[in-house]
Amino acid sequence: MADRVWEVFRQEAEGDPFIHGGSVNAPDEELAMHYAREFYGRRQESVRLWVVPREAIVELDDPDLLQPPFDRSFKRPGGYLIKHKLEAARERAGSPGGGEPEGEA
Amino acid sequence: MTALDAATREALAELLLTLADDEFVLGFWDSEWTGIAPMLEEDVATSSIAQDEIGHAKAWYELLAELTDDDADRIAYGREPEAYRHAALMNHPRTDWAFTVARRFLYETADAVRLEALSRSSHLGIAGLAAKMRREETYHLLHWSAWMRRLAEGPQTRARIVAALERLRPDAEAIFSPLAGEAALVAAGVLPDGLAALRAAWHERMATELRALGLPVPVDSAPTPTEGRTQRTDDFRWLWGEFTSVARAEPGASW
Q1: Residue A60 exposure: Cα atoms within 13 Å on the Cβ side
Q2: Is B225 part of a structural domain of the chain?
Q3: Residues in contact with A13: Cβ distance below 8 Å, sequence separation at least 6, in sequence order
Q4: Could you give the CA distance from residue B141 to residue B137 in angstroms, rounded to a whole number?
Q5: Mean pLDDT for the stretch of residues B91-117
Q6: What's the pLDDT at A79?
Q7: How many C-beta atoms lie closer than 10 Å to residue A14's C-beta?
Q8: Residue B218, Cα to own-chain centre: how many angstroms?
Q9: Range of the domain at A78
Q10: Which residues in chain A have Cβ-Cβ distances shorter than 8 Å to B44?
Q11: Which residues in chain B are contacts of A24 at CB distance < 8 A?
Q12: Does A25 sit within 8 Å of B40, measured CB to CB?
C-alpha cells in the first residue's frame, strides 16, 4: 500500500486557531480523514480537523529570509511605546476604553 | 409508552440480549487485531471501533439489567457460552483482514437498518440509545465501506473479499432471525418493524452497495435461519474463555 503522509491540524473550540496535532500515514484522502479522526478527535478533543497532504505544504525555512542578521527589534510591536498615545486618543474620543484612535496604532 | 405485560417484557429482554451480544462478541473478535492490523493507523482505528462496539454492548446490557433487575457485568461475563444470543455471523474467528472487512460490512449494513428502526421505538430507552449509536455507526459504516472499496479494487484482494462474503453471508442472515416474542414487541411498537421486513430492507441496501462495488450480489431465497442465534461454535467457546478469563479469575471482585 503506497502511503502518503498527511498533516493534521485541530481546532479545540469554534473560533480557536488551528494547531498542528501531528501526522498520519494513509493511502488516500478518505482513510486519512478516518485516521485523523482516530488520532486527533476520538476523545471529543477537537471540533474541526484540517487534513493536508504533506506535499501540499509550502515550506519556507531560509534563514536569510526568516532570521536576517541585522537588528529587527523595531519591527516588533514592542518596539514602540504607544500606551500614552492610546490614552490620549481615548480622551479625545470622549470615552475611557472606547473610540478608535486614528492613525496611532 | 404504557407498562408492558410480562410476556412483552420477556420478549424485550430477549431483544436487548441479542443487541448487546452482537456488539459485545463482535467487539471482542475485532479487538484481536490490536497490535497486528495491516498498518499502525488502521490498528488504532480498528481497536477504537471495537471499543465503540463494546461500549454499545454495555449500554444495551445496562438497559437489560435495569429491566430484569440484574447486573450488567454479570450478564456480560457471567454466562456459559451456550447462553449467548449473538447472530451466527459472530461465531467465526477473526481469520484474515478481508474476512474481517467482509464481516464488518455485512454487520454494519444490517445494524444500520436495525438501528434506524429502533430509533423509532415506542420504548424511549431503546429509541434514545439507538439514536445515539446511529451517530457513531455512521463513521463505522464509512470506514468499513472504504475498506470494502479498496479490497474490491485489487484482483487478489477482490477474490478474498468475494470468498469471505460468500462464506459469511448466510450466517449474517441470523441477525434477523425471528425472536420468540417478536409479535408482542411489534404490537407494542417496541420493535417498529418486524425482523423479516428489516431483513428485506437490509438485502436491498446490501445489493445497492455491492453492485456499486462491482461485487456479486447474493440471490437469497433461503428462509431466515431460526437457530441463527442459538448455535455456538468452538471458535466462540475459545473467545468466551478469553473474554471471561479475568472475570472468572476472581468471581465477584469489584474492580
Answers
A1: 4
A2: no
A3: A47
A4: 6
A5: 97
A6: 63
A7: 7
A8: 20
A9: 63-93
A10: 35, 38-39
A11: 41
A12: yes
Taking an 8 Å cut-off on Cβ atoms, the answer to whether B146 and A1 are in contact is no
Specify whether the CB–CB gap between B43 and B33 falls below 8 A.
yes
Domain with B238, as residue range(s), is 6-218+231-249
Which band of pLDDT confidence, cut at 50, 70 and 90, is reported for residue B136? very high
Residue B1 covered by a domain: no
- pLDDT confidence tier of residue B204, bands split at 50, 70 and 90: very high
Rounded-to-integer distance, Cα A81 and Cα B148, Å: 63
Contact B39 A24 (CB under 8 A): no
* pTM of the full structure: 0.87
Q: List CB contacts (< 8 A) between B142 and chain A.
A: 30, 34
Which domain CATH number covers A19?
Answer: 3.10.20.520
Chain A window 46-105: which residues touch B at a Cβ cutoff of 8 Å? none
d(CA B8, CA B17): 14
Total residue length of chain B? 255
Q: What is the model's pLDDT at position A76? A: 79
Asked if residue B193 has pLDDT above 90, the reply is yes
Structurally, how many domains does chain A consist of? 2
Is A67 found in the same domain as A50?
no
Domain count, chain B: 1
Q: pLDDT by residue (tens digit) across A42-98?
A: 988 999 999 999 999 999 999 999 988 888 777 777 766 778 888 899 999 986 554
- Rg (Cα) of chain A, in Å, rounded? 22
Contact B87, B172 (CB under 8 A): yes
> What is the reported pLDDT for A94?
84
Nine cell digits for residue A21: 496535532
A52 and A8 in a common domain: yes
Q: Do B41 and A1 touch (CB under 8 A)?
A: no
